[in-house]
Design a protein that fits this description.
- The chain is an alpha+beta fold.
- The protein folds into 2 domains: 3-103, 2-Layer Sandwich (Glycoprotein, Type 4 Pilin), CATH 3.30.700; 107-170, Hypothetical protein ph0010, domain 2 (Dna Ligase, domain 1, 2-Layer Sandwich).
- It contains 4 helices and 8 strands.
- It has a 4-stranded antiparallel β-sheet with strand order 2-1-3-8, covered by helices on one side.
- Strand 1 and strand 2 form a beta hairpin.
- Helix 1 (3-20) packs across helix 3.
- The longest helix is centred in the N-terminal third of the chain and has 18 residues, at 3-20.
- The radius of gyration is 16 Å and the shape is globular.
Length: 178
């Protein structure tokens, strides 16, 4: 793993640990590579415990001044504000595994044939409703499954008209199989 990917994972881990221990949101540390302070990207931070999702929050476009700040904010959100899970507790920290995805800019998709669950994540949109699913997720083997899950997350009926977009990710993960 290269230095930047190691730094990304360390930043997510240290952020979650500091927040869970009541130390508040981490400041951008001095040890980070300059590249993470000089560029912007949309980011998803995922937490797993016992190989099961424990929290996942992200952005579809850059919303912070730097990738570093985006990672810090999404790590806090994933550990404390994902409505599907309770806030991460201190005694869980040793069991957590981290994954950070840096997203490319989304591009329009006209049909399912333009999707590939191993390469692309998908965004489905109908008005203000929007659903997202990252690529390379365990148990998601077809574009149809991927789109169906994203539609369900957004509350969009598959029979409604909706717009699809795809994006690629650069994944930094503690899981060796990701």
């Amino acid at each position: 793993m290269n230095r930047e990917k190691e730094a990304i994972l360390r930043l997510a881990k240290e952020t979650v640990e500091a927040y869970a221990k009541g130390k508040g949101k981490l400041e951008i540390p001095d040890w980070l590579p300059d590249s993470l302070n000089q560029k912007q990207a949309a980011v998803f931070v995922s937490l797993k415990k016992d190989h099961l999702l424990r929290g996942c929050i992200g952005t579809l476009e850059p919303t912070r001044p730097s990738v570093a700040q985006e990672i810090i904010d999404m790590a806090v959100e994933a550990s404390s504000k994902d409505s599907r899970f309770p806030k991460v507790e201190v005694d869980e920290l040793v069991e957590l595994r981290y994954s950070v995805d840096l997203l490319s800019e989304p591009e329009p998709v006209n049909n399912m044939e333009e999707l590939d669950v191993q390469r692309y994540g998908v965004i489905v949109t109908k008005g203000w409703r929007r659903g997202v699913l990252l690529p390379r997720l365990e148990g998601i083997d077809t574009a149809t499954q991927q789109v169906y899950i994203a539609l369900k997350k957004a509350g969009i009926d598959p029979d409604e008209s909706y717009v699809m977009e795809r994006f690629e990710v650069s994944r930094c993960s503690m899981e060796e199989d990701e």
